[in-house]
Amino acid sequence: MSSTEARQAAEAFLTEHGITTVRIAGTDIDGLLRGKRIPVDYFLESVWDKGSNIADILFGWDVADEPMTNLTFTGWHTAYPDVTLLPDLSTLRLAPWDPNAATVLCDIVRLDGSPLELSPRTLLKNVVSQARAAGYEPAAAYEFEFYVFKQSPEELAASSWRDAEPLTSGNRTYSIYRGTSTEYLIGEIRESLRECGIFIEASNSEHGPGQFEVNIHYSDAVSAADQAVILKHAVKEIAVKHGHTATFMAKVRSEWAGSSGHLHQSLSNLDGTAAFANPSDSGSLSSVGLNYIAGLVEMAPAFMALYCPTVNSYKRIEGGSWAGSSATWGRDNRTVACRAIPATGHAARVENRIAGADANPYLVVAANVAAGLHGVVNGLTPPAAMTGNAYEATDGSAVLLPTSLQAATAALRASETARKLLGDAFVDHFALTRDWETRQFGRAVTDWETARYMEMI
C-alpha cells in the first residue's frame, strides 16, 4: 500500500467511526505508553506522516517521572532535545473505552528520521529482521495476570496504597461462579479489545483475590507486543472507568500469588510451514525447536533484567510460585523456565514462564526471539529436560537465575552475547536505568523496616 493509499484508508476509518481525537504513543523503557492526543483534522493534515516531536526525556525518566541523573544518552547535560513519534498506520485502531478516540502506535525516531536504537519497538523490529534474514518468521502470544482493586487510584493514593481491597475475596481459580460477579468489568475488557482488533481467547479468575488472567491470540512478534501493550493500558483505563484500580505489578502482597506475563512463541519457515513441529514424533519439538529452547535457557540469566525489570519483580520468582526461577526446560512442565509444548503444525511452541506482568512487552519479545534465534543459528543443544518439580531439584540441574535486580543487571551488563544480540547502546542504557531503580529502592524506608525496628531498637 502506498503512503497515499494508507492515508486515504486512515481517513476513511476515522470518518466511519466518528473519531475526533487520535492518541499517538510509543513506550518508554518501562513499557508505559507516552504520547499525545491529536485532533483528527490535524492528524490527517500533518501528523500521520510527519509525526510529532517529543522530548527525549521519554528515555530519561523513571516510572515515577523522576529524571534519571546517571544516564549518558540524555539528561540535563544534553538539555533533553526532541525525538519524533512517527505513527505506524498499520496499528491504527479504535479505543472503545475512550469515546470518539482512536489509538495509533508510533516508532520513536531521531529528528532526521533515522531509527533510535533505544526505542523498545525498534529493538524488536530489528530482532525480527534478523530472524527473517535467518529464514524464519517469529510468532508470539501473551498471557497476562493482573489484580483489580475496588478503590480508584486517587482513593488508594490517599491511603498511601495500604488499604487496597481486592475486587473479589479468597482464591477461586477458574471459578465460573465467581467470574459472573466480575463480568461487568472483565467482559467489557474482552469486548473492548475485540472492537480494537485484539482477540482474547479466554479469561478467568486466577489464584489471588481479585486476580485475573487473559490470553491473547497469537500473531507475528511485533503485533503480539503491540497488542500486549495496548491490552495493559486498556485494562487500567477500563478499570478506572468503573472506579477501580488495575495493576500489573509482579507481587502485590507477599502472601498472594504473583502476576506473570508468560510468552508463548514459535518460528515459521518463510514458506509458512511450522518450524517447531516434529512430523516424526508429535511428542517432541523439532530440532529447530530444541535449538531455540537451548538459546532461551542459555540466555535466561543475562536477560533476567528484561524479564523482571523492577525490584518488586524478584519477590514473584521465589520457588513454588508458578514462575520460572531456574535456567531449565521441560515438556509441559510448569515449574521450569521454558515449557516445551509439542503439537502438530503451528500449535507446537515454547512458553517462557520467567517474565512478570510488569515487564515491557517489546523488550520481553525481543529478548526471547533474540535468545531463541541465537540457539538456532548456532545449533545449540539444550540441557537435559527437567522432569518433576524444578523448584525442589537438588542435583544441580536447576541453575537458579539472578534473585535481585542488582544481580540481574550485572549479568546483562557482563554478557557479550547479550551485547551482540541487542547492541551495546541498548544494553548500556537499560543497565543504567536498572542501576537507578535499584538505587531508588535502596534509599527508601519501607513499612517492613519501620514495623520491625522502630519500637525495639
TrEMBL record:
Signal peptide: none annotated. The keyword Transmembrane helix does not apply. One of its GO terms (molecular function) is glutamine synthetase activity. Residues 120-457 form the GS catalytic domain. Residues 17-113 form the GS beta-grasp domain. One of its GO terms (biological process) is glutamine biosynthetic process. Keywords: ATP-binding, Ligase, Nucleotide-binding. PROSITE patterns: GS_BETA_GRASP (PS51986), GS_CATALYTIC (PS51987). Pfam families: Gln-synt_C. InterPro entries: Gln_synt_N, Gln_synt_N_sf, Gln_synth/guanido_kin_cat_dom, Gln_synth_cat_dom. SMART domains: Gln-synt_C. PANTHER family: GAMMA-GLUTAMYLPUTRESCINE SYNTHETASE (PTHR43785), TYPE-1 GLUTAMINE SYNTHETASE 2 (PTHR43785:SF12). Belongs to the glutamine synthetase family. This is Unannotated protein.
